[in-house]
Write a structure and sequence with these properties.
single chain; 5-stranded parallel beta sheet; alpha/beta; 2 domains; Rossmann fold; 3-stranded mixed beta sheet; about 270 residues
Length: about 270
């Protein structure tokens, strides 16, 4: 192997739900004296981990196949400006085991800086990082990135997880609402009536599919989190929707995105 580059002035965020892969990438980055290494176990946690200027990073290295928020959803959220503390042009490397698949095509459409096919070789990762730091992204409008349909992800349980819908994160800075005061009032009302930080962690879902908010029915089960502000969870995946929840969600959708769709599904019952 050629001499490892010196990244002592660079900060990295590794995102993967497998501890082994997190450790592997961390060891490779330490070979090039990475200045700082942060880690997250899924895209949602990665989005929330960047809270201020002190947690911003120079490069994100993320796996594609994660749950509940995969790498493409993370990249799409960043390019759409879902967290204002993460630059939309954030350097981003995708890790994938799918060399010739729709995953790569979608990543390119989302202006990924580079991708590495697993298993990850140190030389290949170093080469990709070097290219990333030399290649600026010519950003498109946020709505363009939101409109890109993402491919279906294969979960570790062999269940296909529809990933064409990014988690519904309601942030006032993403797009202008009809009435800022009105949407804030509706979110506060939702929190008082229904918001919970409880829920089943790592719930297993199957038969995931999109459903327009205006077509939700009582008893359906959410297959993704619904969040407001930065990290404030309104409803967790696995929640059985009540009539009251659906009413409030429709009100919020009317103010933010009338055609909003969320993922619903069925719980996997343990045998």
């Amino acid at each position: 192997m050629e001499k490892a580059p010196d990244y002592s002035s660079k900060r990295f965020l590794i995102v993967d739900d497998e501890a082994f892969m997190l450790g592997t990438i961390e060891r490779i980055l330490k070979q090039c004296n990475a200045g700082h290494i942060m880690k997250a176990t899924d895209g949602g946690k990665a989005l929330r981990s960047v809270k201020d200027n002190f947690t911003q990073v120079d490069c994100i290295i993320a796996d594609f196949n994660m749950a509940p928020v995969n790498g493409l959803q993370l990249l799409q959220g960043i390019r759409a400006g879902i967290n204002p503390k993460i630059p939309r042009e954030q350097p981003f490397i995708m890790l994938t085991g799918h060399a010739d698949s729709d995953v790569v095509k979608a990543a390119i459409a989302l202006d990924v800086h580079g991708y590495v096919v697993k298993p990850v070789a140190p030389e290949k990762l170093f080469q990709t990082i070097d290219k990333v730091f030399r290649r600026p992204v010519d950003l498109k409008e946020a709505d363009y990135y939101r409109s890109i349909k993402l491919p279906v992800a294969l979960s570790p349980f062999g269940d296909e997880s529809a990933s064409s819908t990014t988690p519904w994160t309601i942030l006032s800075r993403i797009k202008p609402f009809k009435s800022q005061a009105d949407i804030e009032q509706k979110i506060d009302q939702f929190k008082r009536e229904h918001a919970t930080q409880d829920g089943v962690s790592g719930v297993r879902m199957k038969n995931k599919r999109e459903c327009l908010v205006n077509e939700l029915r009582e008893g359906q089960i959410l297959a993704q989190n619904i969040e407001a502000e930065e990290g404030a969870i309104l409803l967790r995946e696995g929640t059985h929707l009540t009539k009251g929840m659906i009413t409030r969600l429709k009100e919020i959708a009317a103010e933010t995105d009338p055609k909003r769709a969320v993922l619903i599904g069925d719980l996997v019952r343990e045998s």
